Amino acid sequence: MKFNFDEVERFVVGTVGMPGEREFFLQVRTAKELRTFKLEKGQAAALAERMREIIREVKRRYGLGYGLLRSDDSPLEMPVESEFAIGSMSLTWDEEDSTLQFSATAVPEDLGVEGVSEETGEDLSTLEVKITLDQAAEFARRTIKLVEAGRRPCTFCGSPLDPSGHLCPRANGYRR
What is the domain count for the chain? Predict the structure, then answer.
């Protein structure tokens, strides 16, 4: 299945669950529909950081910027039902209409030919979204804030702490 969005009202990452058990989702809202896609925390962080890099480069090269950011800290819209889990992602600048083009492909399960499922012979599901610089800047801000809101690190080893602590390798296996 192919999902293609040229004008979006909302392009955000959100989570479901408690820190340490959170699942990350990318949500795209247009005037007519809402679609949700599962992704990993590392993918969300990498995408936000890459957006920041592209925004800096666009500002430097083209003198373009973004206006006042409209902060969006609202939770994901319900229902959170994933269309597919995101595998590979790409982000490119479209100079012609001054937008960022986000593309993603579903996680391949059993692949034979590149991009075609061995089981069904169908093309992998894809997602393409065009967003403005304003939307990209807000996406990056929100996503980085969300990623950093996870479990706090252990002061000794740096590993994430669960509410009940963890077996710390720097404390010879004692619970911290």
Answer: 1
Q: What is the pLDDT of residue 113?
A: 43
SS3 170: helix
Which residue range(s) make up the domain with 8? Answer: 2-171
Describe the crossing of helices 133-148 and 41-62 by its angle, rounded to 10 degrees: 140
Burial of 56 (0-12, 13-18, 19+ CB in 10 A): exposed
For 8, the token pair is 């979006």
Residues 98 and 101: their CA atoms lie apart, in Å, by: 10
DSSP string, 96-165: TTTEEEEEEEEPPSSBSSTTBBTTT-PBPPEEEEEE-HHHHHHHHHHHHHHHHTSPPBPTTT-PBPBTTB
User: Between the CA atoms of 167, 171, 175 and 176, what dihedral angle is there, to the nearest 10 degrees?
Assistant: -100
Confirm if 5 and 87 have CB atoms less than 8 A apart. no
pLDDT > 80? residue 70 = no
